[in-house]
Structures are given as C-alpha cells and as structure tokens.
Amino acid sequence: MKELIAPAKQHPGKLIAGSGGAGSLVCRRIAETVKGFELIAWFALFAPAGTPNAIVDRLASESQKILARSDVRERFAVMGIQVAPLKPAELGEFQKSELAKWAKLAKAANIIPE
Asked: What is the domain partition of the chain in residue ranges?
C-alpha cells in the first residue's frame, strides 16, 4: 500500500483499485466490485516453540504498549498499515484460520506446494 499512497496523492490520474482493508482512504476496495474478496497482509512477532509463557506474555504486553503509542500508529498509517494487535491466543486462532482459508483456496485452484 505504501507504494500506492504517494503517487495517488501527488499525480493526476485514477487509481483503479487496491487491496486496502476496512478504513483505507486511498484506494477503492476491490471488495466493492468483487464479491467476497478479502486479502490482508499481516505481520506478527513469534517466539520459538517451547518459550515459557511468562516470556511470551511479557513480549506481547510490551509489543502492545509500543503499538498503542500514537507516534507509532501514525508511522504505520503513513505506510498504509492499520495496527491491530492481538493477544497470543488470538494470534494463534487467527493464524489457524488464515492457514485453513488459504489451504482451501489453494486446493480449489489446484495449487500444489513445492
């Protein structure tokens, strides 16, 4: 999205579409034209398997404090990124749902893992 924001603001022309999520002000969402379309690029902080829960909880807590800061949110917003921190259990469920969704789509499109 970052590479779309500056040109869309600075140059005349018409941006046809972009895959920004809810709240994207720069792009007309593809979902308005293609029923059911959703594509979310997401980022997460992971620790190695077996990391003690106390350490995971501390990393999550400190990360969420940082992501709650207005200056951090503003820097992400400039890049077209909407900050939506999740707790470790929520992230685990989200990751499982994303894997299931994309596995189903890959199977339907006959995409074979290499």
From this structure: 2-84
